[in-house]
Amino acid sequence: MLILKLGGSVVTHKEKPFTPHAENITRLAAEIAEADAQPLVVVHGGGSYGHPVATEYRIAEGYREPTQLTGFSKTHQAMVDLNGIIVRRLLDAGVPAFAVSPSSFIATEGGRITGIDLHVVERLIESGLVPVLYGDAVTDTSQGFAILSGDQLAVRLATGLGADRVVLGSDVDGVYTNDPKLDSDARLIEELSLSSRGGEAKIGDALNTDVTGGMQGKVAEAAEAVEAGIEVLLVNATVDGRVKAALRGENVIGTVLKR
Ligand code: IP8
């Protein structure tokens, strides 16, 4: 079983609020169809849909005042809208995609998923469908509500469903020796041992308004899956063919995370 996370910087134009990256979404839908890797679960990030709204209403900080309630709903609704676009493109490409709303069955405690009942997701997978979930605004037992990142969700789905591999697609090739957006001499690390993290790798924060943590957060989240023996591969999903190759288990430019 494979879990594919498509970052918000891949599926949206991050600098333009509420703008899907139609070209990337269409291409990736075709790559997913051509890879024909089943069972598969797709998770996508928020990009210029979820994040600007979550930031405006300070949703990640939890409930503070009543005006945040509409913001909580608007954040979720923005993600529903983006999910609708992605699911429709997948269906157009012939992938039996099925939208699953994380906030309707997942709550967090202090921003972390505690219990999660994957029964329905498992049933969908067994039926041959490709569940498509997303980072979402969720209820939280200690702070009222929280933002659940697509990365945390993808990793939790991987451990809970017993996945073989997680492919995390972003707009960079993988983990670099320095932030490639700031340093043109930065070198890609093809294999990153999590135990030596902080040594060679200086993982830059993503240069954007994400409320959930950029590349640093991605690697930290992935550690749970790596510890569970699941292969985690970071690839650049904005480059033609990389996601398809990663889904097929072929050699591809990227970073493999190791224990
Ligand atoms: O973009 C968070 O998911 P991410 C989505 O994967 C929202 O961090 C609702 C901001």
Structural description of this entry:
The strands form three sheets. The protein has an eight-stranded mixed beta sheet with strand order 3-6-2-1-9-11-12-10, sandwiched between helices. α2 (22-35) packs parallel to α8 and α3 (47-56) packs antiparallel against α4. The chain is built from eight helices and twelve strands. It is globular and about 50 Å long. The longest helix has 26 residues, at 67-92. The model is unreliable at 205-209 (pLDDT under 50). The chain has helices at 8-11, 22-35, 47-56, 67-92, 119-126, 150-161, 214-227, 242-248; strands spanning 2-6, 40-44, 97-99, 108-109, 112-113, 130-134, 136-140, 144-148, 165-170, 191-193, 231-236, 255-258. Isopentenyl phosphate is lined by residues 8, 45-46, 50-51, 54, 75, 79, 135-137, 147, 149-151, 210-212.
Count of helices?
8
Q: Rg, please?
A: 17 Å
Number of E-state strands: 12
| Oligomer status | single chain
Please estimate the helix content.
25-40%
